[in-house]
Each structure stands twice: as C-alpha cells, then as structure tokens.
Design goal:
The complex is a heterodimer of chains A (159) and B (262). With 159 residues, chain A is an all-alpha fold. Chain A has one domain. Chain A has six helices and no strands. Chain A is elongated, with a radius of gyration of 19 Å. Chain A starts with 5 loop residues before the first helix and ends with a helix. Chain B has 262 residues and is mainly alpha-helical. Chain B has two domains: 107 residues, no CATH class; 132 residues, no CATH class. In chain B, 66% of the residues lie in helices and 8% in strands. Chain B is built from ten helices and three strands; from the N terminus they run H-H-E-E-E-H-H-H-H-H-H-H-H. Chain B has a three-stranded antiparallel sheet. In chain B, a hairpin with a 5-residue loop joins strand 2 and strand 3. In chain B, helix 7 packs antiparallel against helix 8. Chain B starts with 12 loop residues before the first helix and ends in a 5-residue tail after the last helix. The mean pLDDT of chain B is 84. Classes of the chains: A mainly alpha (159), B mainly alpha (262). Chains A and B meet through helix 1, helix 4, helix 5 and helix 6 of A and helix 3, helix 5, helix 8, helix 9 and helix 10 of B.
Chain lengths: 159, 262
C-alpha cells in the first residue's frame, strides 16, 4: 500500500472540515476557526503517518495528541485565548469512534474475541490521547513557570 | 449564571466577592471548562481581592467555596450546576474577564456588570449549527471509508440529530436523547443501504457516533484522572461509559428491527 492515496487526501480534507464543524457546534468564536481546522488537519496527518510506519494505534494517538497539545498551547498564547478551544476541537479526528462502533457491533453479533480486541484498541487510543495531552501540559506548564520566575527575578534586579 | 442570587448583601464584602467569583466559576463549569481551571479561577479571583484563606472544591455538578478576609469576615457558599454543554465562546470571554479582573481588581459593582454582559454573548444561529452538524457527520462518514453518497446520507442524519438536539424540550433526559438519536441514525443508515442508496452503512453509523461523542468525553475524563482530579474524572468516565452503552442500545434496537441487515 502506498503512503499517498486518494483516500488519505479525502481524509485530510474531511478532518479539516469536521474540526471546523465541531468548533461551530461548540460555539467557538469565528476568528479562531481557521486555526482549528489546521490543528485538526495536522493532527490527522501525523496520526496517519505514525500508523503507516509504526503500525501502532497507541503511539499514533500519543504522538499526534502531543502535536495537538503543543500546537494549541502555542497558538493559544499567540492569539490570547484559552488552550482548551484548540485542544478540544483539534483532537476530534483521532477520537476512536470507529473502533468503539466495531466493539458494539461485534458484541451484538456475539463475536466476543473480536469485540474484546476492538475494545482494547479503543482504550489504547483513548489512553494515548490523554497521555499525550497530559505530558505536554506538564512540560509546557513547568517551562512557562520557569520563564515567569526568571522574568520576575530580572525585573527585581533591574529596579 | 442564570440562578444568580438576587438578594446578595452588597455591604458584606466577603459574601459579595465570593458570590461574584462563584458566578464566574459556575459559568465556566456550565460551559465546559476543566475542573482544575474552575477551582483555580475562583481561587485566583478571591486572592486578587485580598482573601487570605480560600478553599474551593468542585466536581462536575457542584462547587463549594469558602473565603476568609484579613478583617476576619468569612463567607461560605455552594452552587449546584445542573446542566453542562460545551460553549467555547462564553468560556473564552469568562477566561479573559478573570484575567483582567485579577490584574486590575476593579470595584465589585463593575465586576458584577461585566459578568452580566457576558451572559448576553451571541451564539451562532441554529441553522448554522444544523449545517455544521451535517458537515461534521457527513465528513466523518467519508473519513471512515464512505463514498460521496454515504456522506450525503450521513449529512441528512446529522441534520436530523441537530434538529432534535436544538428543538427538543430541555427537560428530556440526555441519555434518552442519545438512545433516540442512535436508533434513528442506525435505522436511516440501514434503510439507505437496503434501498441501494448508500454503499457503506458502517461509515454512516460511525460518522453519527462521532457526533454523539462518548470518545471525546472519554478523553477529557482520562485527562482529569491523570491530572489528579480523581472524583471528577471517575464521574466523567462513568458518564462516558453510560453514553456508549446508550448508543449501543439504540443501535441494537435498529439492528433487530431490520433483521440484522446492518
């Protein structure tokens, strides 16, 4: 299977559109919409790339959510808005709705082996997303604290 | 913010201050902020106005806070939050308000007025939201392997769900709404494939599930858990699991009605 397929291109467009659509459903301010779209597109591009080369849903979710969290922390500081706006909507394309559906479906068909496998995949992706976000927020938070303290110190020395 | 007490004693500084801080916190909780942010904001506002002792505790449906001022006056108040939805614009404005308040600490009357202004924040008109939901569901149907025609069928389902969501009476149980939405989504998806309109019922149903959103709720629940908000995190996890179960229930009803065609 080659890396670039028509399906991948379609998915990129879809992730851009759906992120923005979700942002509108969540009543986001108009001026952020385009960045939210870029965030969703980037998140999915990374998710797809990692899953293509490493074949691991957990690492794909983890690395792509690290990207989303970093992107939203930075954009939020530039545009002076809370991080959660970009984070909640940008993460949407990697949410494991697909594997959740297959879990349900195989449960109903009484095919418990596949259902269990899909359930584990769902949990893996969920854990990967949460882990990525928490990692970034801890690291970013402590760096910002450090910069803040340094600034205060130099100000105190200067005055 | 709707159930703001109308008879707050403005001469009692501690009481008035805590009431306003709780208004901000309650507004944030109602509109989808994380628990830690709500607690943090209330504490910061109270400290900016000189409280020496602040205790805040919050779960997804309740805030309790107490403050003590240097002159010994004390106030303790609680708020019950009944419904939460995600409203990022209001959240953003409340956030910048709290930042501004902490920096400038204006008179409490002015603070009060500013909170009231935010209540009037404009939302998107409902038809824009309906179209957005059509694009979201349709987009995801294509995203998960559907053809263009599946996307269109899914978009129609998205419109249905959004109309149900926006026009149904507020008192209807949200779990019941999820079951009904999931049932109709699966039914329409299955029927469209039976009639030869759509080609991929799975993609259509997954698109619908993405908008009924237990995945997102599950993600934020896990994040709260990992950040140490054990109580709020486990409540949210329970809520997300129940949501997933309700979707499964609706899907099962439709599947048995159609005789296992999906």
């Amino acid at each position: 299977m080659s890396f670039f397929t028509l399906r991948f291109l379609l998915q990129l467009i879809a992730s851009f559109v759906t992120s923005i659509a979700f942002a509108i459903m969540f009543n986001t301010n108009k001026r952020h919409l385009i960045y939210i779209g870029i965030c969703g597109l980037g998140t999915y591009a990374i998710y797809y790339t990692v899953i293509f080369f490493l074949k691991s849903a957990f690492w794909a979710a983890f690395i792509s959510s690290v990207f989303t969290a970093l992107f939203s922390e930075i954009i939020a500081r530039i545009r002076r808005a809370p991080t959660v706006i970009f984070l909640l909507t940008g993460i949407i394309p990697t949410v494991p709705g697909g594997s959740l559906y297959y879990t349900m479906r195989y449960l109903i068909l009484s095919d418990f082996d596949i259902a269990l496998k899909k359930l584990i995949e769902t949990l893996e992706v969920g854990l990967g997303i949460a882990g990525g976000i928490v990692t970034v927020s801890i690291i970013f938070g402590s760096i910002m604290d450090y910069i803040h303290k340094r600034k205060k110190k130099t100000q105190a020395i200067n005055t | 913010m709707e159930n703001q007490p109308k008879h707050v004693n403005k001469n009692n500084y501690a009481e008035y201050l805590l009431c306003l801080a709780l208004d901000v916190g309650e507004g944030m909780l109602k509109n989808g902020a994380e628990i830690s942010r709500v607690e943090d904001t209330i504490e910061r506002i109270c400290r900016a106005y000189g409280a020496i002792h602040v205790e805040v505790f919050s779960i997804i449906s309740f805030i309790s806070a107490a403050i003590r001022l240097p002159d010994g006056s004390y106030s303790s108040q609680q708020r019950r939050v009944r419904s939460t939805s995600t409203n990022l614009n209001t959240l953003e404005r409340l956030n910048s308000l709290s930042r501004e308040i902490c920096k400038e600490t204006p008179e409490l009357d002015i603070f009060d007025e500013k909170i009231h202004e935010i209540k009037k924040t404009s939302h998107y008109p409902i038809w824009v939201k309906v179209i957005a939901s059509a694009f979201a569901v349709g987009g995801f149907a294509i995203f998960f392997g559907g053809e263009l025609i599946d996307g269109i069928v899914a978009a129609l389902i998205g419109i249905t769900i959004s109309v149900v969501e926006n026009y149904s009476p507020k008192r209807i149980n949200s779990m019941a709404k999820t079951v009904v939405s999931s049932f109709f989504a699966s039914l329409i998806a299955g029927l469209s494939v039976m009639l030869g309109l759509g080609t991929n019922a799975d993609a259509v149903i997954i698109g619908t599930i993405m908008i009924l959103v237990p995945g997102l709720a599950f993600g934020t629940a896990l994040r709260d858990l990992l950040c140490g908000d054990l109580l709020a995190g486990s409540l949210k996890t329970l809520n997300a699991c129940l949501g997933a179960l309700m979707i499964a229930f609706g899907y099962m009803l439709a599947a048995s009605l159609l005789g296992g065609a999906i």
